[in-house]
Amino acid sequence: MAAHIISGKEVAADIRKSIKEQVDVLRSHGVIPGLTVILVGEDPASESYVRGKEKACGEVGIASEIVRRNDSITQEQLLAELDRLNADPAVHGILVQLPLPAHIDEKAVINRIRPDKDVDGFHPINVGNMVVGDDCYLPCTPHGIIELIKRSGQAISGKQALVVGRSNIVGKPVSMLLLRENATVTIAHSRTEDLSALVREADIVVAAVGRPQMIKGSDIKPGAIVIDVGVNRLETGKLVGDVDFESAKDIAGYITPVPGGVGPMTITMLLKNTVDAAKKLNGII
Ligand code: GUN
What we know:
Elements: E1 4-5, H1 8-28, E2 34-40, H2 44-60, E3 63-69, H3 75-87, E4 93-96, H4 106-112, H5 124-132, H6 140-151, E5 160-164, H7 171-180, E6 184-188, H8 195-201, E7 204-207, E8 225-228, E9 232-233, E10 239-240, H9 245-248, E11 254-255, H10 263-281
Parallel strand pairs: 1-11, 2-3, 2-4, 5-6, 5-7, 7-8, 8-11
Antiparallel strand pairs: 9-10
The protein binds guanine.
The site of guanine has 8 residues, from strand 4 and helix 6.
């Protein structure tokens, strides 16, 4: 039977409606939620992500600013920018678009962002709070994935979840969030010996490796929930995920498309974190 297609676009639109209502209430109290994104260099993919964030902010009424810096910026200059934004009361959320040029220490930069303005959820204090289950800003893509699964109406608790990929941005945190939802979690990565065997047993598969169409339908457990985080461009120009959608869609029970699956959720959770930050920093929650 054909899988139910989980439309991230539709779920994101639904959540953004509620975010806009919250922004309207904040604005009526004189609080304008503000997000500042720092973009270093001219990576076309980063440029496109950042423009997407700016557009989404505008649509829900969040004030956004992009601080563009040449890739000759020194680490000290970048840290000084962060100090300025950390101290600016109109800025509730700060995001430094990754990756950064090689001469800049990414960890030092992330560590400099005030944890209560770290709407990416990358600061070690937020990561630590997420792991122990305390209040924090959850990282946007992992949070979006959990929302997509929950809104599909399917239970996570007790299920076998396989996360393919162990990045700090997606693989590791989504594993923690699935564990928090009481899944039994396996993390596979580039050194995993028999990935197919693990995929065959999984009720939930989260694919976040960045290898085009690597997971084939023939390996997927019938009825499984398949969440595809991959965004890969083939030589033909076509955008595909880490899952071979054509072969998977008749075997999975639920599957996210690429594009239009996880992608729209990432920005949506960033908007949510920014509104939460504006509330917290103004003592509203
Ligand atoms: N680069 C790719 N994904 C992300 C993300 O979620 N946040 C930031 N800051 N940079 C990224």
